[in-house]
């Protein structure tokens, strides 16, 4: 296992600084997810840890040691990519064994290692198949197994699930969480998908334009976003944001924290019972309605403003007049400098 530290790291391509004076500590043994929009610098960070693209200035430390002069192969890291880099002409066994053969590991030890790792990732019964006879998820497991035989102290993964269909992605997420528990190794995982980040990470590092926006546990990043960018990047649909018109202050609330009542029955007894705490209410009209099964997403227009509401109730209809209520405690405020004003 190993911790990773970035100390005042800047990375520039030509004169374009894509990472600027970045400081970050990735905890030993944690599952850390780097997330952010395309081009924000996630892969660049991962490549610096792997030794595939040196920083322009600052230091990258693995287990407290500056690794600038340590070549990629000697850093104790293994990288898994989205296009899983497995050899199509080799069987699963040969693919997994490849690195071990190169390192002249004796045959008996190779067989033992390949079988134990294949068991961990659920490939034992496919060892003699060629990759073309495997599903996407099974191929991704071969790539993981190939990384695991190196016994790395850090696993680096760059969008490893993005080539898989939605259902398989969900399954593989669970498998990766399990794998991380079994191995106890430091995982650094890059994705642009905030749902992946929320569901897998011990710690999320949210980036935008080469800068860390917030580094926190999923719960904290969701409930205590430090700034507007974080508030709107994490969560689907994104947080509703409106302008208070005072010194650039904005307010926001999550779609699931708003309740709807039919305008003609407001204020209802039910509302009073279920919302005993102070809340704000405004009247609007439903303009779209999207039924998702267990919940329905409504878009509400109120004057010039538009809000999304995620509700367990599917009874409201397009064009219906409604009252949207939000508990005061669920409203976030953001200052002009983008920092959260509360706490
Ligand atoms: P994505 O999710 O699209 O993979 P990312 O967050 O991983 O994006 P990076 O690949 O780290 O982003 O790229 C960060 C920035 O650095 C981008 O603006 C990109 O164009 C730029 N960049 C990356 N590699 C190079 C390079 N070799 N030469 C010049 N610019 C580069």
TrEMBL record:
SUPFAM superfamilies linked: MOP-like (SSF50331), P-loop containing nucleoside triphosphate hydrolases (SSF52540)
Pfam families, alphabetized: ABC_tran, TOBE_2
Record-level Gene Ontology MF annotations: ATP binding
Lineage: Bacteria, Bacillati, Bacillota, Bacilli, Bacillales
Record-annotated ABC transporter domain positions: 4-234
Organism, scientific name: Paenibacillus puldeungensis
Matching Gene3D superfamilies: 2.40.50.100, P-loop containing nucleotide triphosphate hydrolases
Protein name (Swiss-Prot/TrEMBL): ABC transporter ATP-binding protein
Keywords of this entry: ATP-binding, Cell membrane, Membrane, Nucleotide-binding, Translocase, Transport
Keyword Cell membrane: yes
Transmembrane segments: none
């Amino acid at each position: 296992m190993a911790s990773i530290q970035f100390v005042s790291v800047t990375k520039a391509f030509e004169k374009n600084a894509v990472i600027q004076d970045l400081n970050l500590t990735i905890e030993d043994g944690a599952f850390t997810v780097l997330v952010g929009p395309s081009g924000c610098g996630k892969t660049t960070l991962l490549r610096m840890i792997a030794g595939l693209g040196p920083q322009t200035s600052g230091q990258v430390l693995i287990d407290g040691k500056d690794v600038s002069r340590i070549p990629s192969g000697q850093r104790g890291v293994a990288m898994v990519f989205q296009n899983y880099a497995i050899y199509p002409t080799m069987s699963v066994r040969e693919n997994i064994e490849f690195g071990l053969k190169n390192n002249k590991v004796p045959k008996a030890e190779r067989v033992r290692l390949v079988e134990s790792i294949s068991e961990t990732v659920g490939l034992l019964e496919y060892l003699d198949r060629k990759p073309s006879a495997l599903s996407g998820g099974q191929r991704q497991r071969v790539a993981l197994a190939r990384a695991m035989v190196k016994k790395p102290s850090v696993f680096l993964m760059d969008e490893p699930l993005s080539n898989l269909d939605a259902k398989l992605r969900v399954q593989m997420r669970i498998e990766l969480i399990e794998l991380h528990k079994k191995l106890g190794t430091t995982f650094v995982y890059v994705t642009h998908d905030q749902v992946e980040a929320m569901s897998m990470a011990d710690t999320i590092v949210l980036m935008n334009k080469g800068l860390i926006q917030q580094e926190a546990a999923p719960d904290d990043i969701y409930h205590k976003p430090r700034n507007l960018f974080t508030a709107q990047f994490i969560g689907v649909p994104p947080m509703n944001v409106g302008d208070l018109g005072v010194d650039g202050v904005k307010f926001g609330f999550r779609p699931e924290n708003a309740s709807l009542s039919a305008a003609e029955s407001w204020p209802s007894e039910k509302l009073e019972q279920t919302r005993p705490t102070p809340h704000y209410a405004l009247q609007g009209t439903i303009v779209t309605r999207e039924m998702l099964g267990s919940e329905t997403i409504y878009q509400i227009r109120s004057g010039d403003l538009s809000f999304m509401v995620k509700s367990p109730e599917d009874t409201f209809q397009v064009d219906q007049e409604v009252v949207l209520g939000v508990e005061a405690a669920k409203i976030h405020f953001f200052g002009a400098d983008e920092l959260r004003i509360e706490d």
